[in-house]
Specification:
Distance between the termini: 38 Å
Strand order of the largest sheet: 4-1-5
Number of domains: 2
Order of helices and strands: HHHHHHHHHHHHEEEEHHHHEHH
CATH class of the largest domain: Mainly Alpha
Structural class: mainly alpha
Strand content: 5-15%
Number of helices: 18
Radius of gyration: 25 Å
CATH architecture of the largest domain: Orthogonal Bundle
CATH superfamily of the largest domain: SecY subunit domain
Helix content: over 70%
Largest sheet: 3 strands, antiparallel
Number of strands: 5
Length: 437
Amino acid sequence: MVLLKSFRNIFLISELRKKIAFTLGVLVVARLGTYIPVIGVDVPKLYEYMQQKSGIGGLLSYFDIFSGGALAQCTVFALGIGPYITASIMMQILGMTLPSLEQLLKDGEYGRKILNQYTRYLALGLAVMQSIGMATLLEHQGLVLIPGWSFRILFVMTLTAGAMIVMWFGDQISLHGIGNGSSVIIFAGIVSTYPTMILKLVHMVKEGNLNIILALMVLVAFLFITAAIIFLEKGERKIPVQYARRIVGNRVYSGQSSYIPFKINSANIMPVIFAGTILKFPLVIGSALSTKFPMVNTVIQAFYSGPLYHVSEFLLIIMFSFLYTAILVNPTELAENIRKNGGFVPGMRPGKQTAQYFEYLLNRIGLVGAIYLGTLAIFPAILQKVFGVPFEMGGTSMLIVVGVALELSSQVESYLIERRYEGFLSNGGRMKRGGAR
């Protein structure tokens, strides 16, 4: 009853109702673009090619996750939000390493606007490069009906324009809708594949190709992984911080206590994406060298079909988790900011000792988060190979879906709490004025 009441309250707030309607409207238009095919591509052959788990088809099928199936159908929005996401990650890393970009990050709103403009230009360049690469690949694999320069120019212009439109959709959702636009678009693309997976599972049960017990195992595994993601994504270590008394003029402000939250998964989904992308590139190398060196293709096939692939993915995720966390959180800078504001961690000296304490906690907490990410990434594949359960939803996709859903629910909850608080004050004021009369 409480949940239904809270859901009903969402539609009682005019501003929130408009934001949700706008977001849904943009997502509908964005999904329509995933059904408009690009002219000149043999879509059925491309789909069959991407079903391969080896070669470049395996790499394309991995990136197809983030386009919501548009890449497999080679539609106008085939690149999706991918170029913008890649550009954002690159600018984020460069902003922490290049002094000029780091200064822009410290310049407030003006610096962020310039960095956003740089990110868009970089996304445009990446979209053009990816379109050219995909056009060359399609022609090389014989997946183009009428190859030539006319196809290449039209293909590159169409996919680049589609990527820029999707990027604009994401900006509009961030400005006028609810949630982060890029994340919401990826979320919608992944969720759109759920009905197909469910129907496929039901069809396998009806045809007798899948035992009903195994089908129930898939459902239980899905619920278990979702619950584990929610529990661990909400998990954090709160570091208490005490601020000393301050004297401003003739007033004395008493010391305040606060805390710094260290999340279990500070790096979010990035280590999984980095590890998955790096592990897919040997497929490209193997397919390129297989014609001259058949042994290379045999070794790569054995690597991807055996347990060594999952072990490598697990270790790479742990490595990238520590690396990305070190980029995002600087213990020395954090300790210095606390010291400048007159704060201290109880039992720790301000400065170097506090920074060492933060680094100690980040390493311990980060190890838990890294193991959690690595286990989540390989668990569906292990479930499918060991128990024979056709669990097609990868851990990366589930982490994105649950993470974005948690972010959206927290924003909706903040709107509800804010409006209830304002309504309570206004009612109280009317009651007080009414009693005075």
